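Table S5 (text form). Sequence records supplied for joint modeling of the two-component complex.
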Amino acid sequence: MKRQWTLLLGMLGATPKKPQTVPQPAREIMARKYADKTGFIEEKLRARADHAVSHKWRNRRWAVLTVVNLLFVVSFWLDIQMLEGALTGSRFVGFHMIDLNAALQVMLAHKHIIVNLVIGALTVFVLWVMLGGRSFCSWVCPYHLVSELAEKAHLALVRKKLVSEHEFHRGTRTFCWLLFAALGFLSGYTVFETLSPTGILSRALIYGPGLALAWVLVLLLFEIFYSRRAWCRYVCPIGLTYGVVGALSPTRVVFRVEQCFHEGDCRKVCLVPHVLDVTIKGRADAKVMSLGPDCTRCGLCLDACPNGALQFDVKGLSRLL
Amino acid sequence: MNDLAPQTSSPANPSARSLSRRQQARRVFLRSLALVGGILGLALSAYVPLLRGRFTRLRPPGALNEADFLAACIKCGQCLQVCPVNAIKLGDIDEGFGIGVPYIDARAQACDFSCDAMQCVLACPTGALTYDKPDFLPVRPGASLPAPPVLKAKANDPENTLNLQERMGVARLARPEACLAVQGKGFRGSARGPEFKGMLRYTEVDRWKPVPIHEHPYDVPLCDLCARACPVADAIELRARRGADGVERMTPEALSACVGCGVCEMICPTEPAAIVVDAQAVWEGAT
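The corresponding structure-token record, covering 608 residues in total, follows.
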């Protein structure tokens, strides 16, 4: 319970702390791992040499993201009526689906509860509780994909020392969430929707491009030249909304400290590296640990880990199998 | 990771280390503040198009009052997808809070109620387009229709009205000097030329399917295309009106049954249209 609370605070912006006491089981694992130091290093080098760099999860995820967004597009273009609407609101073979953050904005701005909106939002809520909350971000959001490509460009520029990295405080996103909620309520307009690159890109794909894409381009340039994944990391309230959903989700990534060499490859590829704080030597305080609600379940860390210390897991289900 | 609180310093050079950490934390804090300020500024700049009133858009039938409509619309475009004549478009970012919100450019393609039942209203998941406006939402004076509009295409059906309580706007002869009827002229040919892509349902051609307007040429001794094409019964007619010069001329006039669908504006053969729909306008004449 305390761990859940810490993870929630971590998502809101708190910096992960070193555990004050590490319980016996975790201590034993560490002691065993480092008992034979040369053996440990040998094993590490062997694992690294054997690790075929794979993009398994990334490729699966990109495929899913593309298919979902294409389903919206062809539903309209070919009139096959599978998934009508856009990411903010749609009907999947007739069932209402309403994006949780968009529903929140509409309710705050309009100040009336609309039955179809509640039904659609509840459907989406249950869906993402099952699928892992922020998995919406990495497996569905079209901005996530273009931002991932911008990130590659950004990291290349940083490597060549052409630009430097600028971090913001992670609590900024929490503040922005509150800000957009307050703006929606006070102004009576769905203020966030005007800036949301998720909605803009989704509509642009389905209904054709417009001027709004210029704003998305500005965001991407900001991320390429100034700050890595800035929108997703420090601003987007959709991410935080789905993060809260993810706190209830059984679908997660778990970390097994026993298999970890504490090299930090996972943290280098992660959108939200603070969730991987447990992979730092001495930070894990249990044999198996969930990465928590802010994890987008994107699987980049699974691909990066040479030793399988990070795995997808469905609470309860994995035990059954 | 970022850290606002200075951490315990290293034993090597405690004061210098903690000072640089504090500086770093301060920089991150100020940078974050600037980011929030920038986001807030951009969000508020979306007010500008509204304040300047640049976009008084013709909204689809059954839309709530403008402010409520912008609030209730979830910007998904499902209304656009079901429209049989593709009359509905979505606002762009230059409309501020109107981004992704549906509107109708009547001159390009008006709502001709080809669907009979207002599919866009059925498609709307949030009640931003609605048949029955909830009681707590106000109705602007002059916005309600005196009676349910009778759809010409449904004239012979047992239920011949449209479930529409409020008008989208009101038609107005904006340029009487350009109006062919006022000039006593007839019209012959394709109303908007061969290139025009707009569609209209002609019951005499097909009760159910709208056809391109250019496939349906006219030949009338006195131009009355606006009244002829109007999908609603008794919403517009040509009346003899005496001008300032004392000469009586046939003049198209919207009646209180006008729903503001914009078909008259679309079909008007003069360029630009002599008759236009004032979006979101209410009925001000006698009923």
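Note: The mean pLDDT of chain A is 93.
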